[in-house]
Write a structure and sequence with these properties.
There is one protein chain. The protein is of the alpha/beta class and about 250 residues long. It folds into 2 domains: about 150 residues, Rossmann fold (3-Layer(aba) Sandwich), CATH 3.40.50.1220; about 80 residues, 2-Layer Sandwich (SIR2/SIRT2 'Small Domain'), CATH 3.30.1600. It is built from 10 helices and 11 strands. The strands form 3 sheets. A 6-stranded parallel sheet has the order 5-4-1-9-10-11, sandwiched between helices. Strands 7-6-8 form a 3-stranded antiparallel sheet. Helix 6 packs parallel to helix 10. The structure holds ligand BV8 and zinc ion (ZN).
């Protein structure tokens, strides 16, 4: 069973408002490639090159191919125990906010409710020009890249590098981070901004900061406690301890 400090145990017991930031690592055990792991490369291209306006404008076919490749994976995977643990955790606190960098929709699928998707949703499309959602089916095999009725190019409804994050999501996430008494950073290399500043804002606001990640990150030294390991194994154990404290 996971060993936790007395201090963390007390925070678990007493925390009113809790926020969690997740990254690609929480979906890794579901089979979704992360960005910086060895799978971070796709046909020798880096995510930063493909998930960008320049990348799409210079080679829409290649970028569409990458998104279709990822959509096929995401349509074939399921949430893992790490996702389900966060959905259960949400029910155990009065005030719980899930902030995700992931675009795979697995948190919603696993039952989490109060979610801010900072970087959009890979399964949705929109018009590059007018931003209108594009709801027609796009056949991945067709190699076609439809245009919106306004003539704009249709693109995946995700936030690319250099693009602003959705206002509602970013404002809601910053607000939840600043008033959190307990903040978890799970499965993220804590490099991409502005998401990576959320744990820092929480800490500056007095939150107890917990990291759950497979490897050390820039947050590890800042965190009040850091669990190095798989989120699918660690989070369920934290929830078990939380449940025993709530009952106790
Ligand atoms: C913005 C959606 C500004 C798309 C994504 C220099 C040049 C250009 C830009 C910048 C620059 N410096 C800073 C920037 C800003 C830039 C940025 O931060 N760049 C980084 C690379 C330095 N940010 C932006 O551009 C953002 N926009 O700043 O706008 C602006 C201001 C005014 C006006 C206009 C604009 C937009 C960023 C959003 C980009 N979109 N995704 C898509 O998915 O296709 S980012 C994408 O990468 C993900 O969404 C995610 O956020 C990020 C990857 O990070 P992680 O999730 O952390 O994944 P990673 O693989 O890195 O790490 C996984 C971790 O999990 C690892 O540590 C691993 O050890 C761990 N792990 C693995 N398995 C497990 C595990 N942990 C636990 N259990 C396991 N089983
Ligand atoms: Zn349009």
């Amino acid at each position: 069973m996971l060993e936790i400090t007395k201090e963390f145990r007390n925070v678990l017991k007493s925390a009113g408002s809790v926020a969690v930031l997740t990254g690609a690592g929480i979906s890794a055990e579901s089979g979704v490639p992360t960005f910086r792991g060895e799978e971070g490369l796709w046909k020798k291209f880096r995510a930063e090159e493909l998930a960008s306006v320049d990348g799409f404008m210079s080679n829409p076919e290649l970028v569409w191919e990458w998104y279709m490749f990822r959509r096929n994976i995401i349509n074939s995977v399921s949430p893992n125990p790490g996702h389900y643990a966060l959905a259960e955790m949400e029910k155990l606190f009065d005030n719980f906010t899930l902030i995700t960098q992931n675009v795979d929709g697995l948190h919603k699928l696993s039952g989490s409710e109060n979610i801010f998707e900072l970087h959009g949703n890979i399964l949705k499309n929109k018009c590059f020009e007018c931003g209108k959602p594009y709801t027609e089916e796009i056949d991945p095999e067709s190699g076609e890249h439809p245009n919106c009725e306004c003539g704009g190019k249709v693109r995946p409804d995700v936030v690319w590098f250099g693009e602003m994050l959705p206002e509602a999501a970013i404002n809601g996430a910053f607000e939840a981070a600043s008033r959190a008494e307990l903040f978890f950073s799970v499965g993220t290399s804590a490099l991409v901004q502005p998401a990576a500043s959320m744990p820092i804002i929480a800490k500056q606001g007095g939150a107890y900061l917990v990291e759950v990640n497979l490897e050390p990150t820039p947050l590890t030294d800042v965190a009040d406690c850091s669990f190095l390991g798989k989120s699918g194994e660690i989070l369920p154990q934290i929830v078990e301890i939380l449940k025993s404290e709530k009952v106790g």
